[in-house]
Write the C-alpha cells for this entry.
Amino acid sequence: MDVLTCLGIESTADNLGVGIASSDGRILANEITTHVPEEGGIHPREAARHHADVVGDTISRALATAGITSRDLDFIAFAQGPGLGPCLRTGATAARALSSYLKVPLVGVNHCVAHIEIGRLTEDAVDPLTLYVSGGNTIVTGYEAGRYRVFGETLDIAVGNCLDVFARAAELPYPGGPAVEELALKGEKLIPLPYVVKGMDLSYSGLLTAAMGELRKAEHSLEDICFSLQETAYGMLGEVTERALAHTGKGELLLTGGVGANKRLRSMISLIAEEHGAAAKFVPIRYATDNGAMIAWTGVVAYMSGVRTPVESSFIDSRWRLDEVEVPWRS
Amino acid sequence: MEELILIAKGAEADLLLDPDWNGVKALIKRRGEKRYRHPELDREIRRQRTIHEASIIHRAKGAGVPTPVIYQVDPDDATIVMEFVEGERVRDIVECLPGEERRRLFKVIGVMAGRLHRASIIHGDLTTSNIINTAEGPVFVDFGLGEVSSETEKRGVDLNLMHRMLTSTHFRHTEELFAAFEKGYRESLGEEAEEALERMEEISRRGRYIERE
Ligand SMILES: Nc1ncnc2c1ncn2[C@@H]1O[C@H](COP(=O)(O)OP(=O)(O)O)[C@@H](O)[C@H]1O
Ligand SMILES: [Mg+2]
C-alpha cells in the first residue's frame, strides 16, 4: 500500500502547531508557534488572532521541513476540540480551506486522543494507562471497549492552570511551571495545603486559593511555598494514577502533557510504575505539549480506520470529551 | 505475638487478621506508606483517612446500618482495629444463593443503602466486594472513600457503582438484583430515592466511568 501523508493543525489554546505525519509512522515535521500574552493569562480572541496571523507561515515551514509540497498531502487533520472556541475556529478554518483547495479529505481529531496516540507512537506504548496533565486538562485514562475511558479527572481547574495562575501571582517569569519547579528545588519545608482527592477525581481550586493566601501572608519563603504546592499537587496526581493502575492492571504508565516535563512528577510516576510492575514512559516535551504532529498522526490512524469529517460536520466542539470519541483503530 | 494473617491487599491498605487481639478475633486495616508522596504529607493523609473512616463506620452504625465494631484507632500508625466479621463477601456468594434468598439479600442491601443516604452518608465504594454476608444479614465495610453529604449527585454515584457492579460482575441476575435493591432503597429513603435513581441513570449515560469492575 502507498504511504499516505497527513498535515495536522493544532490550535486549541496558546500554541498554533502544524505537523506532518506519514502512514508508516514517521513524523516529518512539527512546527510550533506560541502566543505569549503581554500580560495575564490566555486571551482566547488575542490568541486566535495570533494563530490566524501565523498559520500560513507555519504551514509553509512544516512543508519545507518535511521536504514536500502541499500537493503531496493526502488529507488534512485538525483539532476539533476540546479547547478555546476562537482558537479552535481559526485552526478549523485553515484546515477546511486547505482541504477544499487541495481537494483532499478532512479528518477532525480530538485533542486529548491525539496526546495519547502520539505517546503510543513515540514511546512504543501498546496499551498504556495515561496521565495527561497540562494547562487545560488533568485526566487519568486508559483504553477499554472501544473508547478511552476516563478513570479520574479534575473537578474544577487543571493542575497546569493552578501552577500558572500561582506563578503569575508570584510574578515569576513565563512560563510558570518551570519557574515554580526551579524554586521548589530550594524549598524544604512542607506547608499544609488542601489535598483534595474525591474517589478518583481531583480538585485544584482550593489548593490554588490556599497557595495564593500563603503568598500574601508571606510567612514562608517563596521557595517553601513552591515546594509545598508541588508536593501537594503532584501527590494528588500520584494517588489517583496509582489507584487507576491497580484497578486496570495495565502494564504501561504513560505521562504526557506540558506538566509531564516536571522532574518531581516524573519521579513519582516512576516509583508508582515500579511498584506495580509497569513500565513508566515519558513523552518527550516537543510531543507532550500541544503540537501539530500529534494531530497529524492521529489523523493518520483515524483515516486508516475509515474516519472522515465532511465539511458540514466539521464544526468545532470546545467541550468534546475524551470518552465520547470512538477509537475504532484500537479494537 | 500471634501470627497476623494477610487477608487482602488493596490499593490503599493491607488487611490483616489477628486471631487473638486481646482475646478476640480482630481485623487490622493498615494504610501503608506511599513512597512517591512527601513523607510528612503522606503521614498526614493516612492519619486523616484513618480517623475519617473510623468515624464514618461509627456514624453508619448509628444510622442503623451494620458495620464492624471499632476496637481501636491509631492515627499515627494509620491503623484501625475492628471486629472481624465472620461471613463471605456478597460478591463471592451471589451466584450460589437460591433465587428467593438472593433477592431478599439485595432488598436488605437496598434498605441499608437508603439508610446511609438518609443519614447523609455516602459510602464512596458501594460494591458487592465491600459487603459481607453474615448469619445476621449484610455488614458494610470499606468506608475509606466515604463522605458526609446529602447531595443527589453523590448518591447517584454510589448507586451507579452498585448498578455497574451488578451489570459487569453479576450479569446473570442484573435485573432482578437491582429491582430488589431499588425496592429496599425506595422503602428506606422515601421520596428522595427517585431523584437519586434518576441521577444514577444520567451518570451512567455520561459514561465516564469504566464498564468493568
Ligand atoms: N471487618 C472485617 N471483617 C472481615 N473481613 C473484612 C473486614 N473488613 C474488610 N474485610 C475484608 O477485606 C476486604 C478488603 O477490605 P476493605 O476495607 O474493603 O479494603 P480496600 O480499601 O483495600 O478494598 C473486604 O473486601 C473484605 O473481604
Ligand atoms: Mg474494598
